[in-house]
Amino acid sequence: MESPLVRGGLTLAGGVLTGNLVGILRVSITASLLGTESRADSLAVAMGPLDTLNSVLINSMVFAFVPMLTAHAGAERSALFRKLRSAFLWVFVAVSLAVMALAPWVMRALAPGLKADSFQAAVLILRVLALSTTASGVASLYWALLYTERRFGPTAFYQATLNLFTILAAVTLWRWLGVYAFAIGYAAGACAQLVLAHHAVRGSLAASPQVPCNIHWRAILAKPAFFLVYAAGLGLNITFTRAYATHVGPGMAAALEYCMRGVGVPLAILVNPLANSLLPEIARLRSQFRLGEALRLIDRTVGLAALIAVAGCAFALLFREPAIALLFQRGKFTSESTRLVSLVFLGLGPTLIGWSLFEITARSLFALDRPWAPVLAALVPVMVNAGLTLRLGISQPQWIGVGASTGALSGFAVVFLLALLNRRRWLQQG
Question: What is the four-CA torsion angle of 75, 78, 82, 84, rounded to 10 degrees?
């Protein structure tokens, strides 16, 4: 318990577990109010990609700037943080405005099979959700500073905050706003988390003397580029499957989104605590030129994650139908909805194994400042997914997620092989 890696991992695991328990309640309420009807499709195709975009931005900021902030201390670290915040605030505002302006074209690309009324609802939901992007992006810069100081508590409950505000808005505003209440709650939760993160670092920033930051703007803006490409490529795997599902039939995109809760909960519990607590530890070992120890730490973590992921996936597949009925079957989520979602999960469930191992390996390599292997491998899942899905012309629920699962496993195999082939060279360089 004296190890910062263990303490950080347990703190993040507690926050992730809380967030996902509240998330299950959120999805249960969504299922009760919307079931697998067209409005559920509208919410799924708008919230899913926007949530992916926010995650891409958050992880890009954290994994790009924790090592950079770790290399500085005291007033220099605070000066670097202030420069990061002033630079990326306008970037995040521009992204939010771009999503709002381009929402109709984005939905045509991400949900081409939606009917006209569902399409218009999805566009409006996406525009409301876009407000959360600025808040989440700025908050992630505060998280990078907190991770550097090994303060994981204020950041651990981000997902719990999002889900809690979404639930409160849905319950209180459903009668007047319907499905749009979910989007308002999500955006409000992102803003609340930004306020919490700002409060957590306000004292240390105020006590730090103002000194100039000598790092050039170009170096700062270019730093997240590798992780941004990596995270975007990895996110396209599920995004492609969700877009393809809108062609299969009404309710299929919603069913896929319910299944993502079954994949996302164990994925978040497994990946986030391990990867985020590993990040400052690996960055520290790298700065001390102890690459051998860092690589052994990565090996042990990936091995442990593999055992947990395989066992968790087998358990989830075996008990998927009773679990779905227990969690969601009420209100407009009927027994037919349970059967549909359980069939979709049969193909999507194995995504957990490849995705979790890929993420832990790739994020560890980013912390080692070895970005090329994960960036190249991140393009593999969506290419394998698209090739397999389009070639087979998949239209049955149980096969919808097979392309995503195969793509995730293929991506992990590629990044693992690239890391293995380059290990000796990295050790020599270190």
Answer: 120
Radius of gyration, alpha carbons of the chain = 21
**Three-class secondary structure of residue 250 per DSSP:** coil
CB 291 within 8 A of CB 430: yes
Measured distance CA(45)–CA(245) in Å, rounded: 10
- 95, 103, 190, 205 from 91: Cα distances, Å: 6, 18, 17, 22
Of 38-42, 72-76, 339-343, least confident by mean pLDDT is 72-76
- The pLDDT score that the predictor gives to residue 5 is 58
What's the mean pLDDT when you consider all of the chain? 87
Q: Which two tokens stand for residue 352?
A: 């957990």
Q: Which of 202, 249, 238, 213 is nearest to 355 (CA)?
A: 238
Residues 238 and 403: beta-carbon distance below 8 Å: no
Half-sphere exposure of 61 (CA within 13 A, CB side): 27
**Per-residue pLDDT reduced to its tens digit, 243-263:** 888 888 788 888 888 898 788
Please name the amino acid found at residue 155.
T
DSSP three-state, residue 368: coil
* Structural domain count of the chain: 1
What does the DSSP 8-state code read for residue 199? H
Burial tier of 224 (Cβ tally within 10 Å: 0-12, 13-18, 19+)? buried
Q: Residue 34 sits in which domain range? A: 4-429
Q: Distance between CA atoms of 89 and 86, rounded to whole angstroms?
A: 6
- Report which of 298, 301, 367 is spatially closest to residue 63, judged by C-alpha positions: 367
- The answer to whether the beta carbons of residues 324 and 254 sit under 8 Å apart is no
Token pair for residue 229? 């490409």
Which of 122, 235, 141, 127 has its CA nearest to residue 197? Answer: 141
What's the pLDDT tens digit per position in 210-245?
788 777 777 777 778 888 888 888 889 998 998 888
Structure token pair of residue 42? 């509208």
Pick the closest to residue 78 from 175, 202, 185 (CA basis): 202
pLDDT score for 116: 87
pLDDT tens for each residue of 136-194: 999 999 998 888 877 777 777 888 999 999 999 999 999 899 999 999 999 999 999 99
Could you tell me which residues come within 8 angstroms of residue 274 by beta carbon, excluding any fewer than 6 positions away? 9, 301, 305, 360
